[in-house]
Amino acid sequence: MNFSIMFDKDKCKCCTNCIKRCPTQAIRLVDGKAFINNDKCIHCGECIKVCPYNAYTPEPIEWYEEMHFSSYKHKIAISSTPLYGQFPKGTDICKVQNSILKLGFDSVYDASWAAEMVGMAIKRKINEEKIRPFISTNCPAVVRLIKNRYPSLMDHLILIKEPMVIAAMLAREKAKKKLDLKDDEIGVFYLSPCPAKLLAVTDPVGDYKPYVDWVIPLNTIYGELYRELVKGDNGLCSHPSLNGTKWAVSGGQSESAGLTNYIAVNGMENIIQILDEVENGNLTNVDYVETLACVQGCVGGTFNVINPFIAQSNINYILGNTKDESIIEELDEFDEMYESGVFKFSLKPEENQGKFNMKEAIIKREKIKEIYDKLPGLDCGSCGAPTCYAHAEDIYNNESTLYNCVVLRANKITEEGR
Amino acid sequence: MTESFLKRYSFDIVANDFIAAGKGSSTIKNLLKSMGIEANLIRKIAITSYEAEINIVIHSYGGQLHCDLYEDKIVIVSQDTGPGIKDVELALTEGYSTATESVRELGFGAGMGLPNMMKYSDDFEITSSSDGTVIKITILL
User: Fold this and answer.
1) pLDDT of A140-196, one tens digit each?
2) Rounded to whole angstroms, how far apart are CA atoms A311 and A323?
3) Could you tell me if B85 lies within 8 Å of chain A, comparing CB atoms?
4) Closest approach of chain B CAs to the CA of A213, in angstroms?
5) Kind of pairing, strands B5-13 and B63-70?
6) What is the ipTM, given to two decimal places?
């Protein structure tokens, strides 16, 4: 698996913030440093957000070299829907697009156009199929969370490709036709608010081609973009779809799809609560559950620069004060595209887990429980595991020892002192 | 209990306690998940045990939820201390509910509890008298 989150050992102080906030308990503190279990990591970026010492960073990709020295004849930047919210209120969208071009791109493709079409595809699939509720699949972190913690809900995933993929596909097609280029002569770069998108390109959960060559964490180019913006060239402009731009904010995709019976939930802890409700069979009267890992949705993305609530306000300002002049060339072909299946995808098949044996499972559980009962139940994290139960599991798996527990150690010292 | 019985996990359920409501079934669900039970069985257990627990909270004077593990099946046993179901057959009809208005306002009591338990179980037994109700939901491995 390709990895998108880098960890700086020297900065880590073992403060336990990350292990406690990781929604899949993928992080342990080992020998005084954090360690991520790649098999469990869903790339939601929580650890990057909560680390007070900035020990987690996005993987540095050599986008600058790729941009300037690569053999691509045509370089396309895909702008994400939350992008325009990252600049001061009232910033001219045309200026933002031109600043992107100044970084060395040949064209900009606005993800909001794809988002509008993906919204149409979502509505169509909900109308055609009986599953309730459908769960959104555009947030790769949530799809991985469901795979990891809620496998029983896999058949509720709507399995419609995310706007990034559709945008990249359409942008490629357009460039190929217009400029008579071959696939490998075109480089597609996604300006990403989100670490999960890095993985969605290198190792997608579904069986689809991502069409994106490089994912650039927005914060790594923000300075350059901002400097170009201040210079303030106008130049040509292609208007974003306002309907599609709504995708930047939690609830926006349902709204853009024209849904009326949906739940929009954002933030990992809230999502876990709602997925529990779905698993208990409580939300069968709801059409669509829109789930976004970050607070307030993609405006809260880990690679964004502006506070999520301010960014949301900026997006709302754009939605309220811009004339909708977008022309989505491919819109006429939507029906044909939908029928051909380009919006849909299926998940990669799961590896076979082997036969379940209840007797063995109970023996294992009882052994872990036995260890757990010796632990203090504080869930303090000082041992390096997020909870006492996780610590007991680690001990069972020979990955930790009982005396990593500071409370037990302290008790032992007190006893010996007597 | 038959020979293949291995282990019982039990949870006390308090009547009318909507703060704790759902915790027993959620503990069962997470326990079975951590033990590695297959996803589609987890789904059946989640739905049936949640419905059973909520029924105890809404309709009974309190009771217990048991999760009995066998070599080849899981049985959820819901046991309460009354007042019992007057007409069991009617209660098994979709949409039939005796829940009070105040309970319905909380989003419960839609009359799908027992029908759902029946739908998602491989074997379903219910006995009820004024002393209480016992429901056995069997899910085969």
Assistant:
1) 999 999 998 999 999 999 999 999 999 999 999 999 999 999 999 999 999 999 989
2) 20
3) no
4) 35
5) antiparallel
6) 0.88
